[in-house]
């Protein structure tokens, strides 16, 4: 005979919550968070279900699509490297020093997040284009062109994605106790050794978080890349030309390929950087 249920018993999901947290608040948060999760996941599932097997097979046999995808991955990797070389030192400066204009510098770093990417592409074209104040002398003196080249693609990707590296690294450096650095200095380590052996390792996860986000954001960049470089085509630009020239079915098949590769690499980088997946991302 089954025992009668206790009317005062807590639901199973609520038994794991701290007693100080109201269960109703968590229930509302789960419902609203579930709506947001569905808003993100449902369109991606619809995309994955749209192309036929024949369309996917045809896309997989398209050489120029693979070339565009490979170019996106290579350019995003170069962008992440440049973002690390330039952005991490700036993040350390913002986290460890106070100077006049610091708030302005921080605002400038965040500015690309608020600028529409087509506007960013036009702005970059005015500076790095054939007649730009940087593009013209760079082409004349060094033979470095930013229009229709890998350099232009990396420049466009860097402009829109570098805030992720700077902001994440800054948070990581701010989380390192300055007393640890002072102790290292009293034990005889110089400023460079202290930074390399104490500060950077302790801020490693935040730095890798920023680099991972920069890499992922760079792969998906379309507007700035299309205006500044256009050729050679990255995967997002190629998908757009497929959509305009061939219709939704071929564009959807190419999109599924890009989505699958991007998600696989994103998950791989997170696992390599943070161990056991999502839970480690939030830990320090």
What does this structure look like?
It is a single chain. The chain is an all-alpha fold and 284 residues long. It has one domain (54-281): Orthogonal Bundle (MetI-like fold). Helices cover 76% and strands 0% of the residues. The protein contains 14 helices and no strands. The chain has helices at residues 23-49, 53-60, 63-96, 102-114, 117-128, 135-142, 150-174, 178-186, 191-202, 204-220, 223-228, 235-246, 248-274, 277-281. Helix 7 runs antiparallel to helix 10 (204-220). The radius of gyration is 24 Å and the shape is globular. Mean pLDDT is 85; it is low at 279-284.
Draw up the topology in text.
Elements: H1 23-49, H2 53-60, H3 63-96, H4 102-114, H5 117-128, H6 135-142, H7 150-174, H8 178-186, H9 191-202, H10 204-220, H11 223-228, H12 235-246, H13 248-274, H14 277-281
Helix pairs in contact: 2-13, 3-7, 3-10, 3-12, 4-7, 5-7, 7-10, 8-9, 10-13, 12-13
For the termini, the CA-CA separation is 50 Å
Helix and strand content put the structural class at mainly alpha
Broad shape: globular
Strand content: under 5%
Number of strands: 0
Name given to the CATH architecture: Orthogonal Bundle
Reported for the largest beta sheet, the result is: none
List SSEs in N-to-C order. Answer: HHHHHHHHHHHHHH
- Oligomeric state: single chain
Q: How many distinct domains?
A: 1
Taking all Cα atoms into account, the compactness measure Rg is 24 Å
List low-pLDDT spans: 279-284
Taking all residues together, what is the mean pLDDT?
Answer: 85
The share of residues in helices is over 70%
Q: If helices are DSSP runs of H or I spanning 4 or more residues, what is the number of helices?
A: 14
Specify the CATH homologous superfamily: MetI-like
């Amino acid at each position: 005979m089954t025992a009668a249920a206790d009317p005062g018993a807590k639901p199973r999901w609520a038994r794991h919550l701290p007693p100080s947290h109201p269960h109703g608040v968590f229930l509302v948060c789960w419902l609203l968070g579930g709506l947001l999760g569905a808003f993100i996941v449902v369109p991606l599932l619809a995309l994955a279900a749209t192309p036929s097997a024949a369309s996917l097979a045809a896309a997989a046999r398209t050489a120029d699509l693979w070339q565009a995808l490979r170019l996106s991955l290579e350019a995003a990797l170069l962008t992440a490297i440049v973002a690390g070389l330039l952005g991490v030192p700036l993040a350390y400066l913002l986290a460890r020093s106070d100077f006049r204009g610091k708030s302005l510098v921080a605002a400038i770093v965040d500015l690309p997040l608020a600028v529409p990417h087509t506007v960013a592409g036009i702005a970059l074209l005015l500076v790095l284009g054939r007649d730009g104040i940087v593009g013209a002398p760079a082409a004349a003196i060094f033979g470095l062109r930013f229009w229709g080249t890998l350099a232009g693609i990396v420049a466009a990707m860097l402009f829109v994605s570098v805030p992720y590296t700077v902001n994440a690294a800054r948070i990581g450096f701010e989380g390192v106790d300055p007393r640890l650095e002072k102790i290292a200095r009293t034990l005889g380590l110089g400023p460079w050794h202290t930074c390399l052996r104490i500060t950077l390792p302790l801020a490693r996860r935040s730095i890798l978080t920023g680099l991972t986000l920069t890499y992922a954001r760079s792969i998906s960049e379309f507007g700035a890349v299309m205006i500044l470089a256009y050729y050679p085509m990255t995967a997002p630009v190629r998908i757009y030309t497929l959509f305009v020239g061939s219709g939704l079915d071929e564009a959807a098949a190419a999109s599924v390929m890009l989505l699958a590769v991007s998600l696989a690499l994103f998950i791989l980088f997170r696992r390599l950087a943070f161990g056991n997946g999502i839970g480690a991302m939030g830990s320090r």
